[in-house]
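Allow me, if you will, to draw on your knowledge of protein folds for a short while. The matter concerns a single protein, recorded as an amino acid sequence and a row of backbone structure tokens. Kindly check, if you would, that the fold set down in the tokens agrees with what the sequence suggests. You will find the record immediately after this paragraph.
***
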Amino acid sequence: MLKLKPNCECCDADLPPESTEAMICSFECTFCAACATAVLHGVCPNCKGNLVARPIRPALMLQKYPASSERHLRAQPCAASAA
């Protein structure tokens, strides 16, 4: 089950579970759409996988399976990935 991390790992922008701006890779690294496109060019800087839109968990399921509240930030600044 997806953790639904609450923030962009690059700029720390809030990404609530219902956000349509959240992008993730297959390891659930999470970035806002602005960083994912303009800075990272669709490539995860951690695993080099592609970034896709994070699905939105329906409200009823969100009550039963809440999103994570643990924030994550990269130790190193985000920079464009070389694929």
Q: What stands out?
A: Residues 1-68 form a domain with the Herpes Virus-1 fold (CATH 3.30.40). The beta strands are 22-24, 30-32, 52-53. The two ends are 27 Å apart (CA to CA). Helices lie at 33-39, 59-64.
